[in-house]
Write a structure and sequence with these properties.
Order of helices and strands: HHEE
Number of domains: 1
Structural class: mainly alpha
Radius of gyration: 19 Å
Strand content: 5-15%
Shape: elongated
Length: about 70
């Protein structure tokens, strides 16, 4: 059985927001004395994720429905 992999393309602000929110959740669970295993793995994966630089090309759609490059 293969596991599906999903890729998220985030800018720096989105990535930082996810890290901060996961850290907030982790701190809240620790303060309540609950298990933190559900947050540990995603936090480590997001913090250590490799970055990729993408070139984005914007196109304009004309009235006839075709791309105007």
């Amino acid at each position: 059985m293969t596991i599906k992999k999903y890729h998220l393309y985030l800018n720096e602000n989105e990535w930082l927001l996810i890290i901060l929110r996961l850290n907030d959740l982790l701190n809240r669970l620790v303060a309540e004395g609950r298990y933190t295993h559900c947050v540990d793995e995603p936090l480590v994966k997001f913090a250590g994720a490799k970055t990729v630089t993408l070139k984005i090309r914007y196109t304009e759609i004309t009235d006839n429905g075709k791309n105007n490059l």
